[in-house]
Design a protein that fits this description.
Structural class of chain A: alpha/beta
CATH superfamily of chain A: Ethanolamine ammonia-lyase light chain (EutC)
Number of strands of chain A: 6
Order of helices and strands of chain A: HHHEHHEHHEHEEEH
Structural class of chain B: alpha/beta
CATH superfamily of the largest domain in chain B: Aldolase class I
Distance between the termini of chain A: 46 Å
Number of strands of chain B: 15
Strand order of the largest sheet of chain A: 1-3-2-4-5-6
Largest sheet of chain B: 9 strands, parallel
GO cellular component, one term (chain B): ethanolamine ammonia-lyase complex
Main location (chain B): other
Radius of gyration of chain A: 20 Å
CATH topology of the largest domain in chain B: TIM Barrel
Subunit structure (chain B): The basic unit is a heterodimer which dimerizes to form tetramers. The heterotetramers trimerize; 6 large subunits form a core ring with 6 small subunits projecting outwards.
Strand content of chain B: 5-15%
EC number (chain B): 4.3.1.7
Strand content of chain A: 5-15%
Oligomer: heterodimer
Distance between the termini of chain B: 69 Å
Largest interface: A-B, 44 and 52 residues
GO biological process, one term (chain B): amino acid metabolic process
Number of helices of chain A: 9
């Protein structure tokens, strides 16, 4: 194949993030491509099964942060039974302090996402959002997004902010999602939340930008007394309104 | 109802309903366990199969698993049942149907004649009595042929959907992915995009871009943008070039409600596509996707196991003479199909049930990162499905869908499957590949790729 054609094909491949090879000879997958794919899949798999280091996170957060557990006793049960990941274990005790805002930091499907992003995101958020400085912080293990509803309800919080590890993709395995829910109650529908997703260091939303969006949403939600489809985002940047929870 | 009970190893098992029996007889699936309806023990599963074996087939015409009242899918199944086609099976039990299907009496002709006489529940029931090899052995005897701009489903063919998704719906990025697939001879079942945005103007742009590529190179295939059927109706109004109307469907009225569709709106869309009259060889204009677990995830399963409900979705699909239908078997997550073993079993079940009910059945051989599966499992399933005569498989660049965030088959996987099976694309598409100098069956080389790039108008 001519050098000119090689260059043209390489330029075309740059037009899509898809794994195109543009191989006019239609040959089997080259070994290097095969191992790159396996490496990406391995990173995603390992991310799901990495245990969170809650002690290190608590130190980084620099605030008391009690650890709560869902009813899913281990990773296998967490993956099979999303219903168990949405409910607090029977021995969990949540102090009822009736805060305006409660924050839950949860492992979700990517504990490394929490370790990499949660403390720094909270630092940025506290700088911009007064409610977040007063908010009690809870850590939650084997948790789905909706576990925040039960925690928020038990704490008597007006609103709950859930920071949770998103399902790892092949390209990014430690991306964090933020879910904001007004008047959290067990059984709250996903359409009643606002979501800011893709918070990570590899071309995703930066901690500063994510904190700004979350702070804006918190302020609007207090003014409106609602989150979800009722809270239309009119900020310059557009966090998506959630249709279906990712984790 | 006759008493549904049997003994296994001296233990007596009794099943309270047809739905309970079917669920207990099903191979282990995490979704049925999540719903709390799977067999409580391995012995109970075998006992359920003993009961099912002796159950008269016509039980399913007298008793419903989802009540007629309020469920349009059940009504459709019963009203469209062809009593004449059922006559040869009217006195059989489910076990006897299994024996007949494995016998030489079941061939392409007799299976096609029987399809309208089988209800989805009958086929779901017999499926539970069959091992994986039985599902392969019987499905490969069935032949379902459909036509739009080419002919799919002929014996000896293996077709593909070329899925050139792009996270920002960029038409150039999509064209590059289409080219990547054409190099491997993919795209004869459909060139179909899942749009990142369902915005109508965006979907219209994508339809025009796909139709432009198809028309410019006179590719004998069909295109589709997989947006909601009500959006497609709006797009017809806007004069967009629509070949196949897409919709996700499920096996209960309530689950279809969760998808925002009714049987009436599907009929309306089919009529609009027929009126557009864009097919040159035939009038199969619909494209359906389904998947075990869809009804449970919509909290609309009525205590019925996910494989039976999946077969009922095919009962819906066949009422609209689709060009293609496929299960997205590994997409839905580990809470429904936990690992490679469950995905492989479900893929074979779905293909078998679809084919026996008369559907041009394809499979998205796929998995997500939180499922206990990898590319080796996909190789196993794809190889088995090709042996089973699957109508088409979904293919994406490098086996990684960068928009939907899951892994399917790559274009080079089709090269492998065509090489080991000797199957080729749809005849019209194969002739076109030959004429264009493109990879015929994923093996030959393109003589002058630079000229092809020029004519595609792809300037980097």
């Amino acid at each position: 194949m001519s050098a000119g054609l090689q260059e043209r094909l390489a330029a075309l491949a740059a037009m899509t993030p898809s794994r195109v090879r543009l191989d006019a000879q239609a040959r089997p997958l080259p070994m290097g491509h095969l191992l790159s794919f396996q490496e990406d899949h391995a990173a995603a798999r390992d991310a799901i099964f990495t245990a969170p280091d809650w002690g290190a996170l608590r130190t980084a957060l620099d605030c008391p942060a009690p650890l709560l557990r869902s009813r899913a006793r281990d990773r296998a049960s967490y993956l099979r039974r999303p219903d168990l990941g949405r409910r607090l274990s029977h021995d969990s005790a949540v102090a009822r302090t009736e805060p305006r805002l409660a924050v839950v930091i949860a492992d979700g499907l990517s504990p490394p996402a929490v370790m990499a992003n949660a403390a720094r995101l909270m630092e940025c958020l506290r700088a911009q959002c007064p409610e977040s400085r007063e908010a009690p912080v809870f850590l939650a293990e084997q948790a789905r997004v909706a576990l925040g509803d039960e925690i928020g309800e038990a704490a008597g919080a007006e609103m709950v902010l859930m920071l949770i590890g998103e399902r790892p993709g092949l390209s990014v395995s430690d991306s964090l999602g933020a879910y904001l829910t007004w008047a959290p109650r067990i059984g709250t529908r996903d359409s009643a939340r606002n979501c800011v997703s893709n918070i990570h260091a590899y071309g995703g939303l930066s901690h500063e930008a994510a904190a700004a969006r979350i702070a804006w949403l918190i302020e609007q939600a207090f003014a409106l007394g609602a989150t979800g489809i009722a809270l239309k985002d009119t900020s310059a940047a557009q966090p998506s309104v959630l249709g279906e929870a990712q984790s | 109802m006759a008493r549904l009970s049997a003994t296994a190893r001296g233990e007596r098992f009794t099943f309270r309903s047809l739905a309970h029996l079917l669920a207990a007889a099903s191979p282990e699936k995490s979704g049925d366990q999540l719903a709390g309806i799977g067999a409580a023990s391995a012995l109970e599963r075998v006992a359920a199969r003993r009961v099912l074996m002796d159950l008269p087939l016509d039980t399913f015409l007298r008793e419903t698993v989802v009540p007629c009242d309020g469920d349009a899918v059940t009504r459709l199944i019963l009203e469209s049942h062809d009593a004449g086609a059922f006559v040869p099976f009217a006195s059989m039990t489910v076990g006897e149907l299994r024996d007949w299907l494995l016998s030489p009496a079941a061939d392409a002709q007799s299976l096609a004649a029987a399809a309208p006489g089988f209800t989805p529940e009958m086929i779901a029931a017999v499926c539970k009595l069959m091992r994986n090899q039985d599902l392969v052995r019987v499905a490969r005897k069935a032949e379902v042929v459909t036509r739009f701009r080419n002919t799919l489903g002929r014996r000896g063919t293996l077709s593909t959907r070329l899925q050139p998704n792009h996270p920002a719906d960029d038409p150039k990025g999509i064209a590059v992915a289409v080219l990547d697939g054409l190099f491997f001879g993919a795209g004869d079942a459909v060139i179909g995009i899942n749009p990142a945005s369902d915005n109508i103007g965006n979907c219209r742009d994508l339809l025009i871009a796909l139709d432009d590529i198809r028309a410019r190179f006179e590719i004998p295939t069909q295109t589709s943008v997989l947006t909601h059927v009500t959006n497609t109706l709006d797009l017809f109004e806007a004069g967009a070039p629509i070949d196949l109307v897409f919709q996700s469907i499920a096996g209960t009225n309530a689950a279809n409600g969760g998808f925002g569709v009714t049987l009436e709106v599907l009929r309306e869309a089919q009529e609009a596509a027929l009126a557009a009259d864009r097919g040159t060889l035939g009038r199969n204009v619909m494209y359906f996707e389904t998947g075990q677990g869809a009804a449970l995830s919509a909290d609309a399963h009525h205590g019925v196991d996910q494989q039976t409900l999946e077969a009922r979705a095919y009962g819906v699909a066949r009422a609209y003479d689709p060009m293609i239908a496929n299960t997205v078997v590994g997409f839905i997550g580990p809470e429904y199909l936990y690992d490679g073993k469950q995905i492989i079993r479900a893929g074979l079940e779905d293909h078998f049930c679809g084919k026996l009910l008369g559907l041009p059945m394809g499979v998205d051989v796929c998995y997500t990162n939180h499922v206990q599966a990898d590319q080796d499992d996909m190789d196993t399933l794809a190889t088995l499905l090709v042996e089973a005569g699957v109508t088409f498989l979904i293919t994406v660049p490098g086996a990684d869908d960068a928009m939907l965030g899951y892994q399917s088959l790559g274009f080079e996987d089709i090269g492998y499957l065509r090489e080991v099976s000797g199957r080729g694309p749809a005849p019209e598409f194969a002739a076109w590949l030959e004429g264009a100098g493109l990879a015929s069956g994923g093996r030959a080389a393109l003589p002058d790729p630079a000229r092809f790039l020029d004519s595609l108008g792809l300037v980097a």
